[in-house]
Amino acid sequence: MKNSQPQIDRFWPYPWVVAICTVIFSFFILLALRAHAHVDIAISDMFFSSLACDQVGTYFGSNPKAARCGLFEYSLTAWARPAQWVVITVTRVAVIGLIVWIIWVACLKRRRTPQDYVAPAYCFLALLMGPLLFIIFFLKEVMGRPRPYQTLDFGGYAKFTLPADLSAACQTNCSFPSGEAAGAFWLLVFVPLLPQRWRIPGGVIILLFAIFASFTRVSFGRHYFSDVTMSACITIVSIVVAAALVQSGPASRLFEKWSSYSNRTMKRWEARGYL
């Protein structure tokens, strides 16, 4: 019988080669962003409105020793909070759906095949390696890059730092890279699991959503352009690496052993009347 589970097509004959090329490409993007760091300030400046320091009314944006005082007014508009809510909610719903899917396959499904584990393992690895561990729990806590509204260029108190430079200006949950953008770009992980005819439109919709999420973070003064760009690069690298890992020989043997063990366990439970 043909397996109806969603499968990850082999888009490339040598997945690890593609993964390495993606890492190298992302590295060159980072070099370009560092070499043209003025682009970060110029893009953020498009959304910044200068005001007299005594008119700002917030701690950040009102430093009289800064280059100028002011606010990122998009963050104060009526659509700011709903937009942020939509971005966070869509990502969280996807993560919750993935958790339910993993529980179903690992614990509740009666008969399992090795292929049943491939797709959820691929989605989970991409989430774990990129957005969660590397971006949120490591880079955002270690790099210390201040957010735009915290810098002297925009009425704050910290100096501008290049992307991927270590800094002590921010202590936790810092600017580089963007967690929200990483979560939005992670949704691209589901594109290979869609039916063939839905992959291009589905990919376009998810990509537009990720760009919108990135735009809100930059326009609100919470992230630089380089923050969201590197979040996209790191997340796409994690997706490619996850696809290569779950299609590797060791992963196939692991899924084979686990499905065999799970099926034997389910049969014993059924025989004892637990199910």
Q: What is the fold's blueprint, element by element?
A:
Layout: H1 15-35, H2 38-45, E1 48-50, H3 53-56, E2 70-72, H4 80-108, H5 115-142, H6 179-186, H7 199-219, H8 225-246, H9 249-271
Antiparallel strand pairs: 1-2
Helix pairs in contact: 1-8, 4-5, 4-7, 5-6, 5-8, 5-9, 6-7, 6-8
Task: Walk me through this protein's architecture.
By secondary structure, this protein is an all-alpha fold. It has one domain. It has nine helices and two strands. It has a two-stranded antiparallel sheet with strand order 1-2. Helix 1 runs antiparallel to helix 8 and helix 4 crosses helix 5. The longest helix is centred in the middle third of the chain and has 29 residues. The radius of gyration is 22 Å and the shape is elongated. The chain starts with 14 loop residues before the first helix and ends with a helix.
Overall domain count = 1
Q: Which strand order does the major sheet show?
A: 1-2
- Tell me the total number of β-strands: 2
Number of helices: 9
Spatial separation of the terminal alpha carbons: 25 Å
How would you sum up the major sheet? 2 strands, antiparallel
Structural class: mainly alpha
Mean pLDDT over the full residue set = 88
Radius of gyration: 22 Å
Low-pLDDT runs of 5+ residues are none
Portion in helices: 55-70%
Question: What are the secondary-structure elements, in order, as H or E?
Answer: HHEHEHHHHHH
Strand content: under 5%
3D shape: elongated
